[in-house]
Amino acid sequence: MKIVIAADHAGFELKNALAEHMRSLGHEVEDLGTDSSQSVDYPDFARAVGERLTSGQAERGVLVCGTGLGMAMTANKMAGVRAASVSDTFSAKMCRAHNDANVLALGSRVVGLGLAKELVEAYLETDFDGERHARRVGLIEAP
Ligand code: RB5
């Protein structure tokens, strides 16, 4: 799968580890930064990932900040982007199965590396259920 990943200063270490993990699983991962603990503004990185999705350059996105919240809030302002901020495996699966989430947002101050890897795997491995959920996802985008 073509995956785009980005983080702010709070999430860059977890982002690096998750990018490596997803590559080890066979995915093509584009890393849009940031790459240091120097303070940056998370909305810039969320938008960059969203643009890769809306342009069709990537199938899924992963965003990491301190909480996962600001990244998800920003990404969800973009038409066609459905970001889910999760910290449990059930939600990581369900955001795919019922909501067709194309972005997973994680909080580096919320989850450790082991759980974050599990969340990413659950998210990437779960297909959208479609049917009645497709109608509901369509309603998310309704004007
Ligand atoms: C940065 O301190 C922090 O606000 C950011 O990483 C994120 O948690 C925002 O939602």
Account of the protein in words:
With 143 residues, this protein is an alpha/beta fold. The chain is built from six helices and five strands, in the order βαβαβαβαβαα. A five-stranded parallel β-sheet has the order 2-1-3-5-4, with helices on both faces. α1 (12-24) crosses α5 and α2 packs across α3 (69-75). The radius of gyration is 14 Å and the shape is globular. The chain starts with a strand and ends with a helix. The chain binds D-ribose. D-ribose binds next to α3. D-ribose binds at residues 8, 10, 42, 65-67, 69-70.
Question: What is shown here, in short?
Answer:
The protein has 143 residues and is of the alpha/beta class.
Percent range of helical residues: 40-55%
The class by helix and strand makeup works out as alpha/beta
- Describe the strand arrangement of the main beta sheet, using strand numbers: 2-1-3-5-4
Give the overall pLDDT as a whole number. 98
Q: What is the β-strand count?
A: 5
**Largest beta-sheet details:** 5 strands, parallel
Low-confidence stretches: none
What is the number of helical segments per DSSP (H or I, 4+ residues)? Answer: 6
Bound molecules: D-ribose
Shape: globular
Intertermini distance: 30 Å
Strand content: 15-25%
Rg is 14 Å
